[in-house]
Amino acid sequence: MRSKLTFIHAFIINPLLNLYPLMWLNIFHDNMTYAANTLHHPFYVILWAFSTALGCYYYSKRIWQAPFFKFQNIIHALLCAGMVITPFIPYSLTLPVQINDLHIWLGMVSVGGFIAEWFFYFILYGLPAFWDRIFLYTLIFCVTLAFLPGSITASAQLSFSLLVNMLLRMHKKNED
Q1: Which region among 58-67, 105-114, 135-144 has the lowest average model confidence (pLDDT)?
Q2: Which of 11-15, 89-93, 108-112 has the lowest mean pLDDT?
Q3: What are the DSSP calls for 18-80, one per residue?
Q4: What Å distances lie between residue 8 and 12, 38, 165, 168, 169, CA to CA?
Q5: Contact 107, 82 (CB under 8 A)
Q6: Is the dihedral of CA 78, 80, 81, 86 positive or negative?
Q7: What's the Rg (C-alpha) of the chain?
Q8: Best-predicted range by mean pLDDT among 60-69, 91-100, 126-135?
Q9: CB 10 within 8 A of CB 61
Q10: CA 54/CA 52 separation, integer angstroms
């Protein structure tokens, strides 16, 4: 039953949440914060962030439960919680700069910390499986999308959400 639910999340619900912004965002210029604040879709962005963070948390935790890898469960949970909290903090030029900085830095630290956790895993244990190598290349692709245009765009956010959740779900430890 759990396998069917995770399949539905990773391959149906999360992709549908990632396709919706293509209808009303220029994904190479705008980002999900623009969708929440300017286009007035804050509940959608919170749902999208929750779906992304849920997959990042649950699928990673299942993979890392192997006895040979000791990960910091509290840090991992806080990083994924930060992904969900970020859309609740508004970003607007009319707000104090500290609020805007909190929004930006919480998002960057949360996603960057998640990626750092996986790089740490790869450094310690190498890339033994095919899916591990594909996942590493996907993380590098998502980071490149984030830095290439000079700002975080929806293309980077949606690619990270969609590809990371799908690839983590396809890992053999998440199949049972």
Answers
A1: 58-67
A2: 89-93
A3: HHGGGGT--TTT--HHHHHHTS--HHHHHHHHHHHHHHHHHHHHHHHTSTT----HHHHHHHH
A4: 5, 31, 11, 14, 10
A5: yes
A6: positive
A7: 16
A8: 91-100
A9: no
A10: 6
Closest CA to 69 of 36, 109, 118, 16: 118
65 vs 45: CA distance, rounded Å: 30
pLDDT at 125: 76
Q: State the angle between helix axes of 97-125 and 73-85 in degrees (0 to 180), rounded to the nearest 10.
A: 140
Rounded to 5 degrees, what are φ and ψ at 40? 60, 50
pTM greater than 0.85: yes
Tell me the average pLDDT across 8-34. Answer: 91
Is the confidence at residue 14, as pLDDT, over 70? yes
Q: Which structure tokens are listed for 58?
A: 């649950």
